[in-house]
Write a structure and sequence with these properties.
The protein has 25 helices and no strands. The protein is mainly alpha-helical. It is found in: Membrane.
């Protein structure tokens, strides 16, 4: 019996860290829900308010413009008030935005609510993976930091399901309930997150070594592991690793100016490559077209020949379900296979599926009669594209960018990546209708396929493997000869294939 009890407690700390990350990731469910539900709500908003295609593009994309500004502010906020209270602030912003959108008597109020929620999105996208990375151990970091992306997928699926259910209500009530109901979980999370421990790495940056040690004892499996992690964090923060004081007075902060100098103006060789990698992966996550599929899937399927509202909403539920299943698979493989092999296989699959989707939609567009095979091929290619995206590029974007920066640069370095992510997302979501009107919907997906080829080359040449590397050792990894990393990846890629 004693042996059994010992086995049960063997991973108690890491399980608690995962539980904290799960609770934190609930904010990503709310964001995902807001993205998914807007896809279907646009059908009903257009019908009641009579908004144009341009107004639909702006309504869909303005959230990401506001998220860009939110993410840039969030980095400083997370360093100033802590990771935990930043999550609370993001939840409150979501709640206010949801209430305004649910009220939505006209387009202006709807836009205001979308903007407020967008600022909350910027906070959420930065802080959830950063908190998860900082509270988890090296061996489980990939799994834990991929949870926010999985929760976004769950939220999108829930949004699609709610679209289908509430779409049966009267027009004035249905879409307002779709958008407004997110205020309830937002309030619950704002209160519930206060029960979570603060990030031990943030506590060390504030000089609270005693509090940091208590948290590390909670989230580590053994006392020896907690002590070792604390020593590494103290060393990374510029504190003597043998220091035993509870509170240490750190040098006066300079309002983040030194951080921006180290990141942008005078970065070291390793920090420069970290920034290039983070900005690149965030740019390509959306430049390869995922937002066009997730936000306008009903238009793609309608173009392919699915015409009734019920069937359109049911088909989009299939997209959400595919996304969640593949994200679950990715979370279990990301620490076993590694970031780069999954990323390269993922983007390779996206290139092929986007090419097939572009071809099938072009055939539908140019044919004067209904092509059943092209309709089926369009739907299958869309599902395969979503599957490959969420097996690699989707979750790894957030894992990679949250783990590579040094401790003092992490929050603001990650915020730059998130800002690029939101800007690219906004560019795609606010221009997709105009793009496919100009070059046809098939041409738009051929364009995304071409961008995906460039993305594959970027990931191959510029992104070293981070699996099993401690956060405090990332600078050393990015200072190594790039060729060694490529060789390692080639070996790992042969193993997965």
């Amino acid at each position: 019996m004693e042996i059994e009890r010992g086995n049960n407690n063997e991973h108690k700390g890491s399980r608690y860290a995962v539980a904290c990350a799960v609770v934190t990731s609930m904010i990503s469910i709310i964001f995902g829900y807001d993205t998914g539900v807007m896809s279907g709500a646009l059908i009903f908003i257009k019908e009641e308010l009579g908004i144009s295609d341009t107004q639909q593009e702006v309504l869909a994309g303005i959230l990401n413009i506001c998220a860009l500004f939110g993410s840039l502010v969030a980095g400083r906020t997370a360093d100033y008030i802590g990771r935990r209270y930043t999550i609370t602030l993001a939840s409150i912003l979501f709640m206010v935005g949801s209430v305004l959108m649910g009220y939505g008597p006209n387009y202006a109020i709807l836009m205001t609510g979308r903007c407020v929620a967008g600022i909350g999105v910027g906070f959420a996208l930065l802080i959830a993976p950063v908190y998860a990375a900082e509270i988890s151990s090296t061996k489980s970091r990939g799994f834990v930091t991929s949870l926010p992306e999985l929760c976004i997928g769950i939220g999108i699926l829930l949004g699609y399901i709610v679209n289908y259910l509430f779409g049966k209500l009267i027009l004035r009530l249905g879409w307002r309930l779709m958008l407004g109901i997110a205020a309830v979980p937002s309030l619950a999370l704002a209160l519930g997150i206060l029960a979570m421990p603060e990030s031990p790495r943030w506590l060390v940056m504030q000089g609270h070594l005693g509090k940091a040690k208590k948290v590390l004892l909670q989230v580590s499996d053994t006392e020896e592991e907690a002590e070792l992690r604390l020593k590494d964090i103290k060393s990374a923060a510029g504190i003597d690793e043998n220091c035993t004081e509870e509170i240490v007075k750190l040098p006066q902060k300079d309002n983040g100016e030194a951080v921006w100098k180290e990141l942008i103006f005078r970065p070291s060789y390793s920090v420069r490559w970290m920034l290039i990698a983070a900005v690149g992966i965030h740019f390509f996550e959306h430049a390869t077209g995922i937002e066009a599929v997730m936000l306008y899937s009903h238009r793609i399927f309608k173009k392919a020949g699915v015409t009734s509202k019920d069937k359109l909403l049911l088909t989009t539920i299939g997209v959400g379900l595919t996304k969640v299943i593949c994200l679950i698979i990715a979370t279990f493989f990301i620490d076993k296979v590694g970031r780069r092999p999954l990323l390269l296989v993922s983007v390779g699959g996206m290139v092929c599926s986007l090419g097939v989707l572009g071809f099938s939609l072009t055939m539908v567009d140019t044919s004067h009669e209904e092509l059943l095979w092209a309709l089926i091929l369009s739907i299958v290619a869309t599902y395969i594209y979503v599957a490959f995206f969420n097996l690699g590029l989707g979750p790894i974007t957030w894992v990679y960018s949250s783990e590579i920066f040094p401790l003092k640069l992490r929050a603001q370095g990650a915020s730059i990546g998130v800002a690029v992510n939101r800007l690219t997302n906004a560019a795609i979501s606010m221009s997709f209708i105009s793009i496919y009107n100009a070059i046809t919907i098939g041409g738009a997906f051929f364009m995304f396929a071409g961008i995906s080829v460039i993305a594959w080359a970027f990931f191959y040449f510029f992104m070293p493997e981070t699996k099993g590397v401690a956060l405090e050792e990332m600078e050393m990894l990015f200072s190594k000869n790039k060729g060694n990393n490529v060789t390692t990846t080639e070996i790992d890629l042969r193993q997965i294939l």
